């Protein structure tokens, strides 16, 4: 909980009172306000909570079996997710290897999508579909996927990476931590998608009428701006990539037991137990093998993912704008035949891309959405909560009028909540990298009538599995 929230401690204590019997252990920590070098937001919240997790578990000889899960408070994870993560984690450890894996589920907006404005729903539909596109059922050593809001990392990997950054450059907390772990392991991070979807809520203010309609769109734009502000991570990745060879030279001169072998990414912490320091030093020494190279196929895939996330939306927008302006100019200014041919060709390519993307959503995403709804409904029935949550299932019909309108609005929603916020972000970065962190408005849920009302916003939560 945050110190800035006057009700934070009360809410935490109420949650523990309500649900302590459902967990092996429940604790809370209060994140102090105004710590030096911290920017308000999810990353600094998670960083503080993770430090408390380290304090609790690092003195435990079995500390390497602790898994840390980061999630937004409106996220609904199935029990299958944790079972699958633990199974993969134990398999890695039984092979005599330290688990340097980031586990991540796909996301789906299947809770209140039927209650929000259509453009808001379409924007989140595209967001979920884009994240799903880089998933694979059988990940390899070259797999690169970017987590969205929810992921799990082993505690040794958290220590090796040096925890979560707290500055304004880490506003894209999920991507930033993935990049930090990737470069801390020198590109040897294993990224394993988990086939158990994380259910999310669409942004909504809950206000009625035309004012509510406008407020919902404004809230979604603010969320889009915060997401696109994370394009700072491209610069972060480039800087870390450029330092690969420099870090390797420093590591070549170090030995596993020396104080310098912990490297810049780990850092020697006098508060850490000796067995933890030795473990981290041995792991980082092993990660700096003779095959470490700056130019690898996996690094190329990584930067292609960053291009898709931070460059492609604005490039597409600017190309469309420039093409429209060029076509509207009088003849003497548009007499270049070769340029006209190129513009015609690219317009056909864009039309084909839109057609293929629509096919992807109609055929694959709709089936995925139905499977997610079915899995969550079954689990809620087993838990005896289905009746209470019956109105929190956003069903879709593949070729209904509403779904077809959703597909036709892809370009509009993508521009309003993707390209335009990205343009604002990259122009703003000429002056500042700081953004006022606004928590996205999500639907309110009464957990226990008359006892506790908790807004399901995008604040963070950390769970540990031992």
Task: Give structural notes.
By secondary structure, this protein is mainly α. The chain has two domains: 8-308 and 437-465, no CATH class; 312-428, no CATH class. The chain is built from 16 helices and ten strands. It has helices spanning 8-19, 42-57, 79-94, 118-132, 155-161, 173-184, 209-229, 232-242, 244-252, 263-266, 274-287, 297-310, 312-328, 337-383, 401-408, 410-428, and strands spanning 67-72, 76-77, 101-104, 107-109, 151-154, 190-193, 198-200, 444-448, 452-455, 460-465. The strands form four sheets. It has a three-stranded antiparallel sheet with strand order 5-1-10, sandwiched between helices. A three-stranded mixed sheet has the order 2-7-4. Strands 3-6 form a two-stranded parallel ribbon. Strand 8 and strand 9 (452-455) form a beta hairpin. Helix 4 crosses helix 16 and helix 7 crosses helix 16 (410-428). Residues 254-267 and 448-466 have low confidence and may be disordered.
What layout of secondary structure does this protein have?
Elements: H1 8-19, H2 42-57, E1 67-72, E2 76-77, H3 79-94, E3 101-104, E4 107-109, H4 118-132, E5 151-154, H5 155-161, H6 173-184, E6 190-193, E7 198-200, H7 209-229, H8 232-242, H9 244-252, H10 263-266, H11 274-287, H12 297-310, H13 312-328, H14 337-383, H15 401-408, H16 410-428, E8 444-448, E9 452-455, E10 460-465
Parallel strand pairs: 3-6, 4-7
Antiparallel strand pairs: 1-5, 1-10, 2-7, 8-9
Helix pairs in contact: 4-16, 5-6, 6-8, 7-16, 13-16
Largest pleated sheet: 3 strands, antiparallel
The total count of strands amounts to 10
Structural class: mainly alpha
Rg measurement, Å: 23 Å
Q: Are there runs of 5+ residues with pLDDT below 50, and where? A: 254-267, 448-466
Proportion of beta-strand residues: 5-15%
How far the N terminus sits from the C terminus, by CA atoms, comes to 22 Å
Q: Order of helices and strands, N to C?
A: HHEEHEEHEHHEEHHHHHHHHHHEEE
Helices, by number, come to 16
Q: In order across it, which strands form the biggest sheet? A: 5-1-10
| Count of the separate structural domains | 2
The coarse overall form would be globular
What is the arithmetic mean of pLDDT?
84
**Helix share bin:** 40-55%
Protein name: Glycosyltransferase 2-like domain-containing protein
Pfam families: Glyco_trans_2_3
Organism: Cladophialophora yegresii CBS 114405
InterPro entries: Glyco_trans_2-like (IPR001173)
């Amino acid at each position: 909980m945050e110190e800035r929230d006057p009700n934070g401690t009360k809410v935490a204590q109420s949650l523990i009172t309500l649900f302590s019997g459902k967990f092996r252990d429940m604790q809370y920590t209060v994140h102090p306000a105004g710590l030096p070098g911290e920017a308000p937001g999810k990353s600094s919240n998670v960083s503080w909570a993770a430090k408390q997790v380290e304090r609790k578990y690092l003195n435990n000889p079995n500390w390497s079996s602790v898994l840390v899960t980061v999630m937004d408070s409106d996220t609904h994870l199935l029990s299958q997710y944790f079972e699958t993560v633990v199974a993969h984690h134990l398999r890695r450890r039984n092979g005599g290897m330290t688990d340097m894996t980031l586990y991540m589920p796909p996301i789906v907006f299947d809770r209140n999508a039927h209650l929000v404005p259509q453009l808001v729903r379409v924007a989140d539909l595209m967001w979920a579909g884009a994240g799903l596109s880089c998933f694979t059922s059988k990940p390899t050593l070259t797999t690169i996927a970017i987590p969205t809001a929810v992921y799990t990392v082993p505690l040794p990997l958290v220590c090796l990476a040096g925890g979560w950054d707290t500055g304004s450059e880490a506003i894209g907390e999920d991507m930033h931590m993935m990049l930090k772990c990737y470069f801390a392991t020198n590109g040897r991070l294993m990224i394993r998608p988990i086939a158990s979807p994380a259910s999310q809520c669409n942004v909504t203010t809950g206000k009625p009428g035309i004012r509510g309609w406008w407020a919902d769109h404004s809230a979604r734009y603010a969320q889009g701006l915060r997401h696109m502000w994370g394009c700072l991570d491209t610069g972060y990745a480039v800087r870390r990539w450029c330092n690969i060879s420099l870090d390797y030279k420093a590591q070549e001169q170090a030995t596993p037991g020396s104080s310098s072998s912990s490297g810049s990414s780990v850092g020697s912490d006098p508060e850490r137990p000796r067995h933890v320091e030795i473990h981290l030093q041995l792991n980082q020494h092993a990660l700096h093998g003779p095959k470490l190279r700056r130019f690898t196929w996996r690094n190329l895939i990584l930067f292609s993912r960053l291009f898709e996330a931070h460059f492609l939306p604005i490039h597409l927008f600017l190309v469309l704008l420039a093409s429209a302006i060029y076509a509207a100019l009088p003849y003497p200014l548009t007499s270049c035949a070769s340029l006209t041919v190129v513009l015609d060709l690219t317009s056909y390519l864009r039309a084909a891309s839109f057609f293929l993307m629509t096919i992807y959503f109609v055929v694959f995403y709709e089936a995925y959405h139905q499977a997610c709804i079915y899995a969550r409904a079954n689990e809620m029935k087993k838990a005896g909560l289905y009746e209470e949550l019956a109105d929190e299932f956003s069903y879709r019909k593949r070729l209904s009028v509403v779904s077809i309108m959703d597909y036709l609005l892809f370009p509009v929603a993508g521009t309003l909540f993707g390209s335009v916020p990205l343009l604002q972000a990259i122009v703003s970065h000429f002056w500042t990298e700081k953004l006022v962190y606004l928590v996205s408005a999500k639907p309110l849920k009464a957990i226990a009538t008359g006892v506790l009302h908790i807004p399901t916003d995008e604040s963070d939560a950390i769970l540990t599995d031992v």
